[in-house]
């Protein structure tokens, strides 16, 4: 491929992406996702002030052009920016345009938003923080949509009394991202997520509330929970 053809291909690709962003409703959808929180098609349609069928067409265009990705969770479909590079490009365009991104405002009751159960694992702001911490310190690695433990992560889990080989033998996913419905970011699901919840309950870092999915964590319990999984 000669230089002139490469330049023409680049120009066409850029023009296609510019066209996807240039439509006002699609631009509002993209900007609303800059805070890192996923949203449903219904929410994005409301933000963009368009009908459901129009929103569906816009979302398909944005996915086809590589700007959005979709995560299916139960009966719901959540959309988020396809990559960090997409977010950086949008941020740069917003600076040039002189406008700010729309912040995410959660509506979940505080006690449920902070910590609760999600099936058999932990959810809420504490669980999202733990998920991010495990990734940041290199204990948890993303292996094409499935999570695995690094050597340091496996050793750390074993030191806390978690039988990793036994969890890996279970007939279920070992570890995976589970989208948190209040935070719209991932917490840890799968057999490992369930084991971490049971550990937190045994250590009394967390307690179940009666007749509720909420978990009660004292400030000290929350600190101990996060500290237990902090790498040396």
TrEMBL record:
Domain HTH arsR-type positions: 6-101
CDD domains according to UniProt: HTH_ARSR
Gene3D superfamilies membership: Winged helix-like DNA-binding domain superfamily/Winged helix DNA-binding domain (1.10.10.10)
Xref: PANTHER family: TRANSCRIPTIONAL REGULATOR-RELATED, TRANSCRIPTIONAL REGULATORY PROTEIN
Protein name listed in UniProt: ArsR family transcriptional regulator
Phylogenetic placement of the source organism: Bacteria, Pseudomonadati, Pseudomonadota, Betaproteobacteria, Burkholderiales
